Amino acid sequence: MEDRNAETARLRQPWRRRLKRLNFSELIMPGFILVYSSIIALIEPRFLSWGNLDNLAGQIAPLLVMSVGQAFTIISGGLDLSMAAVMSLSGVVGILLVPLVGPWGAICVMAVFGLLVGLVTGYIIAYQKTSPFIVTLGMASVATAIALILAHGVPIYTVPPELTAAIGFGHFLGLPVSFEIAIAMLLLGAFLLRRTVFGRYVYAIGSNKSATLRSGVNVSLYTMLVYGFAGFSTGVASIVLTSWVGAAQPVAEPDMTLKSIAAAVLGGIALNGGSGGMVHVLYGCIVLGALSNSLTLVGVSSFYQILAVGIVIIVAVMLDRVRRREIF
Amino acid sequence: MMSKIWRKYLVRATYAGVMMLAVGVGSAIPSAKADDAARFLGTVDEVVKDTGEPIRYGVTLVHLQDDYWKGMAYGIVDEVEKSGGKVVQVSIAGKYGNVTEQFAQIDAMITKGIDVLVIGAASYDGYDTILAKAKAAGIKIVAAGTAVNSKIPDWGVLFSDFEIGKRMGALLCEKKPAGSFKIIGLPGPAGAEWSKLRVDGLKEAVSECPGAELELAPVGGEISIGYALSQTSDMMTKYPDASFVWTPTMGLGMGAVQAIRQRNSDMKVVGSTIMRGVFEPLEDGTLLAVNAEPSILVGRLIVQYAIRQKLGMDTPLIQPSTDTQYPLVTMPTEFLTKENYKSYPWEQTDVPPADWSIEAFQ
Question: What is the number of H-type helices and E-type strands within chain A?
């Protein structure tokens, strides 16, 4: 009895609780990143140069922001295939409104517009009892079409230089501002997931939707809010991307939606929902970004790059199964 | 060999002269003829109108997400409005490689009934069956903007992609710093014949340029600004001593420009196809030159020559070609630099009006 009390007392200390929870499986992805980076650094020492890490941080920022929102939809048991399209549309709308609202107003427009589109998508999914796959696929077409109509099909190059200078090129405390925005989004995501009722319900809905419903949780409302947050993250991603590339493109980075799903799953978020956290999003984005960057530095042909990315995703999913003790 | 070079320079000089003359004449004489001459930059001696039963055009292009393809669509639609005829349908494949989309579109156009099919092919190969079907329906087939590997088209209006790549490489050689120098090349999308030919042309120019080294980035899957920005940044990390970045199209070139600006580097970019965003980097010197590909003019020439063929008039610009299995109008190109871009009539020849959209026509 005394032993049990001592153990309970020990576990009351948060760092001990975390240490106990930390097991080998949680070290797979950071271990992979460390080993991979070391190997690449041996082949091409410039990979770990400050200049390249700065470059890498800027490159993964839009994906990281988008993956935060995507992670919420996946943890809740859904997914959002419209994110890249909504990101393009938010960017186009924001830049078109610059003459009316100014450059900083345009940033707010992009974020709020993304949020509103996300809420509409969430409303259709949650209250009309429709499949997220089909609704977000449809929303992707709608958003792309509206972006093409508004931009007359071509990129808009009138991004205010203040935005490009501050967010696209800017550095604060030695780090790219775009990456700092991405980290802020990641922290916001972690806070919402771990420290709020909303976050607990997101996990509950993803784990067992009908049980959550029977527990008296307003599942429809929280599902709508999940897609609202995903929309907000696409809006923020559009701010980062538009400032970074210096243009609002009606079809910007169409592959980024799938990359955001890949990043979340690769990092360790279960595709069937109910588990995972923001640290997994970070792992996934670092792996995807570092793969592309390092293979280009090493001089690997893009065909082999595509092959490498595919193999890494498959291996990561297998490791995920190992982690869950589903195989071996 | 010498005669070929002289001929090349003669063509360029004539084209440049004609353009300047056309712009000058266009602004001085406010008549219909002057307007005709200006919009064709002197490439057509007499602009003819469609008479009798109007020609029905069906158009399928790769996409309308850059000023090159959008300009071509605008050129066709606007010229049909001015010279007569009817555009039955303008369709797009969506992206390079979407061959089956174009098959379905061409099938629909055959059913609707058209006289001339304008095809900006999404792929180099694979069109024989559908083009044979169109031909059997009595439709004239014109290849526009990108070559198609078939002998069925009646003629085409194209740019020589190999020559474009080679000319850009030669320009870099002309502007090279003393001693040896490096060129970072972004080869463009995998599987696109036009992109591969431009890279081949660049390689040949580099092989003929003493001291030049070409460092090609991996072949990519996208033509997006963000993709080119990342690829250029990575290549700049690997080759920080490079002097130039070469891109087959300014869709990628704008990403390269942005990467150079972000890193405060003094590398220079050269790319092809004009878009509205090129003038600022031309002015600040990040963009050394952009190769103009007057796609609006391509559209206008297609309509004008279709009318001429219908009326039995001569078509002197259509010449046999060794590059394709059908005769071609090979379009001239011109470099725009900080020094000359203000005098180049890009709004008439390369970039459609900002507010023009295909839905305005359809």
Answer: 15, 2
Strands of B86-196, DSSP E: 86-92, 116-119, 140-144, 155-158, 181-185
CB–CB contact B217 A149 (8 Å):
no
Nearest CA among A229, A215, A311 for reference residue A266? A311
The domain tally of chain A equals: 1
User: Do the chains contact at A152 and B65, CB–CB below 8 Å?
Assistant: no
Interface touch A157/B280, C-beta < 8 Å: yes
- Whole-number Å distance between alpha carbons of B131 and B133: 5
Within a domain: residue A171?
A: yes
pLDDT tens-digit map of B1-37: 334 444 444 444 444 444 443 444 334 334 456 667 6
Question: Is the residue at A319 inside a domain?
Answer: no
A77 sits in the region (left: phi over 0; alpha: psi -120 to 50; else beta) called: left
Which pair of tokens denotes residue A124? 């259709």
Nearest to A252 among B67, B224, B262 (CB): B224
Q: Are residues B104 and B165 in the same domain?
A: no
Partner-chain contact A250 B65, CB within 8 Å: yes
- Contact between B238 and A297 using a beta-carbon 8 Å cutoff: yes
Question: Which range marks the domain in which residue B253 is found?
Answer: 161-292
CATH number at residue B353: 3.40.50.2300
Host domain of residue A113: 60-253
With beta carbons under 8 A apart, name residues in chain A contacting B222: 253, 255
Angle between helices A98-127 and A219-245 (to 10 degrees): 150
Per-residue pLDDT tens over the stretch A33-46: 899 899 999 998 99
Residue B23 sits in the same domain as residue B65:
yes
Residue B225 with chain A: CB contacts under 8 Å: 155, 245-247, 249, 252
Residue A277 lies in a domain: no
